[in-house]
């Protein structure tokens, strides 16, 4: 099966793969640029970044992948959501992907600047509303995905429902790891896929070696759990001492609060917990991950990931 191009507005990705925007600071310029240079769409995870840092990452990614497509992923739940989107648009970002909540306002910002806005949704109803508001494409995320989840249903069930009600490009997300997964999504009516876990466990991902070791050690279904996020959504994570404490409602409450979220339960500080894991403290850090991370047994470069995906796709009959 030949990989089709993915068209989002005026953007044309030679390979229909969007790299998931993984915060905090897992998806920075080196990862986004590497994906963009392979013909996919690279995303910088903007949530939790000061505006100046986001500007730096965007400029660096654009320099590293001058002919590639670079976007940002940002949580609607973030207090600085509007400012992060405005900063990215000001830096000439190619597209904005937004999840962990829904914003009607962002479509007007995109229309005013000519920037494609791509919401992450988990239902046909929200996909249809997004189209009416001016979305450029729809990412459909199911329960297989890592991080914040909006549903307990599989993306394989939701994608056909979304395809039936919108005329926009549809991108399937959640549990996409191999060529056969891409082919399955395309057969369901998707125009492309978003992949997070495979790129989290890549050379270019900005995670510590200790974090990547946790990915490779998570080999069993029981290694993956759902935790309650202060954002107000369930989050899919790898079982660690800290996530166990969350389950038992014994996670330490924040001593100081940066007011990074619009609404927060203050049960624990998710930004700091994710940052600790990213920096290598996997004992007191939170490790978000999709369930199929257990099928990943080695850290590969982005170039190697694209090579094997293309090879697998070539072996699949049309």
From TrEMBL:
Q: Which InterPro entries match?
A: Aldolase_TIM, NMO
Pfam families the UniProt entry points to: NMO
The protein's matches in CDD domains, at most eight in alphabetical order, are given as: NPD_like
Q: Which SUPFAM superfamilies match?
A: Inosine monophosphate dehydrogenase (IMPDH) (SSF51412)
- Which GO molecular function, any one, fits this protein according to its record? nitronate monooxygenase activity
Keywords of the record? Flavoprotein, FMN, Monooxygenase, Oxidoreductase
Q: What's this chain's function?
A: Nitronate monooxygenase that uses molecular oxygen to catalyze the oxidative denitrification of alkyl nitronates. Acts on propionate 3-nitronate (P3N), the presumed physiological substrate. Probably functions in the detoxification of P3N, a metabolic poison produced by plants and fungi as a defense mechanism.
Q: What is this protein called?
A: Probable nitronate monooxygenase
Instruction: Output the lineage of the source organism.
Output: Bacteria, Bacillati, Bacillota, Negativicutes, Veillonellales
């Amino acid at each position: 099966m030949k990989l089709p191009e993915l068209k989002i507005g005026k953007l044309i990705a030679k390979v229909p793969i969007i790299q998931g925007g993984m915060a905090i600071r897992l998806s920075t310029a080196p990862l986004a640029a590497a994906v963009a240079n392979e013909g996919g769409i690279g995303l910088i995870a903007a949530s939790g970044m000061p505006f100046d840092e986001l500007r730096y990452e965007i400029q660096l990614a654009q320099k590293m992948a001058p002919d590639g497509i670079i976007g940002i992923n940002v949580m609607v739940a973030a207090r600085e959501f509007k400012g992060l989107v405005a900063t990215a648009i000001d830096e000439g970002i190619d597209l904005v992907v937004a999840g962990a909540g829904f914003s009607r306002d962002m479509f007007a910002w995109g229309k005013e600047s000519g920037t494609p806005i791509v919401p992450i949704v988990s239902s046909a109803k929200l996909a249809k509303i997004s189209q009416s508001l001016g979305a450029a494409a729809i990412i459909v995320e199911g329960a297989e995905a890592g991080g914040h989840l909006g549903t307990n249903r599989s993306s394989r069930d939701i994608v056909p429902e979304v395809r039936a009600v919108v005329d926009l490009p549809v991108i399937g997300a959640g549990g996409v790891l191999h060529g056969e997964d891409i082919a399955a999504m395309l057969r369901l009516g998707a125009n492309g896929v978003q992949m997070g876990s495979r790129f989290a466990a890549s050379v270019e991902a900005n995670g510590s070696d200790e974090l990547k070791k946790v990915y490779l050690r998570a080999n069993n279904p029981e290694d993956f759990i759902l935790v309650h996020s202060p954002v107000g959504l369930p989050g899919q994570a790898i079982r660690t001492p800290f996530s166990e404490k969350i389950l038992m409602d014994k996670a330490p409450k924040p001593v100081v609060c940066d007011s990074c979220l619009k609404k927060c339960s203050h049960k624990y500080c998710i930004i700091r917990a994710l940052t600790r894991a990213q920096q290598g403290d996997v004992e007191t850090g939170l490790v978000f991950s999709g369930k199929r991370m257990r099928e990943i047994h080695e850290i590969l470069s982005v170039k190697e990931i694209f090579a094997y995906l293309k090879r697998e796709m070539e072996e699949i009959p049309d």
